[in-house]
Amino acid sequence: MKIRLRLVSTAIAGSLLLSAIPLASAQSATSAPVAASAKLADSLKAVTFTSKQIEEKNEAFEAKLQIPVASGLLDKKFEAKLNASIEEQAMNALAELKEQSATDKTEAEKDGYEFRPYYLDVSYELKSDGGSASKGVLSFTVTTYTYTGGAHGSAFVDTYNVSNGAAAQTLTLDKLLGAGAKEKANAAVREELRANPDNYYADSVKTFKSISADQTFYVSKGIVYVLFQQYDLAPYAAGIIEIPVRSALSLKPSKAGKAGSTGYYATTKGVRMVPLRAVASAFGYQVTWNGKASTVQLARGDKSTQIVLRKNSFSLNKSAPVKLSAAPSMLQGIVYVPADFLSRILELKVSISDQGIMTVSE
User: Fold this and answer.
1) Contact present, 130 and 73 (Cβ < 8 Å)
2) 251-294: per-residue pLDDT in tens?
3) Alpha-carbon distance 254 to 257, whole Å?
């Protein structure tokens, strides 16, 4: 029997955080300003953790638990419930393992086959300490490894993301990444799958559709990482997959027809052309192509725009159209727009390094 201990944040979200207040959204790879005020954010002290260690062993099982105990949250009621909930989940899992291992050992002896003792290990890692330097974002992971027979055990990681304030709140991807959070995360995953295909299942680029509604993630040094469990995107040996959702996108200079979705090219007039879908989706825009009309529709929150191939006319939210440095074009099935479309229409920041690398950010 495979037992998977889940010190899940859903238990907390369902029972502890019913009074959570929505937070203002933030840029795509920075933590949200979760403190109640700038003054409070500047004075926040880091949340610290100690371990409640439990070790048990007999002929049927061995367990080593380091149960995290948080201290220093401003919301003491939340802190107490958080700690109690995590400990309860861990102890329930330990009790289940003990009962199941005893039952399976007895059955193994009865049937005359070898029984290998079961094993449970629980550990944790602090990713963001909830202090002023981390803008009040508390983020930590709990990793549970279990062995209940077979060639190897399995690991599962749960994450907790909380704003440290007078009234603690759960942090969601929407709160941390802002408008188009799901699309931003999806774009980051697709980019990673395309960039390092050998690290994942052969068909991952095609089969990956979207992150889940309750996607596991954590925050470290202001960057959101979406997390995938064993076997989600790659074989067992790959372990837990962690993919950063960054606030900036880099494009390399290339020649027309070879830029693809990861680079840009310059026209004979010196206009830099960038891949529309790759850039727009990275910043949370839904991109819809209409082949019959040769148009591309972009939408994110309250922003929308439509471009027409070979027509130098652009607008945002039906504002008066403007003419930019070049009309949209298509090369090898990829639609390109001038770089000033990003800055003037989508209101993104565009810069070029001395090496010619184009950086796009919000």
Assistant:
1) yes
2) 999 988 787 888 999 999 999 999 999 999 888 888 999 999 99
3) 8
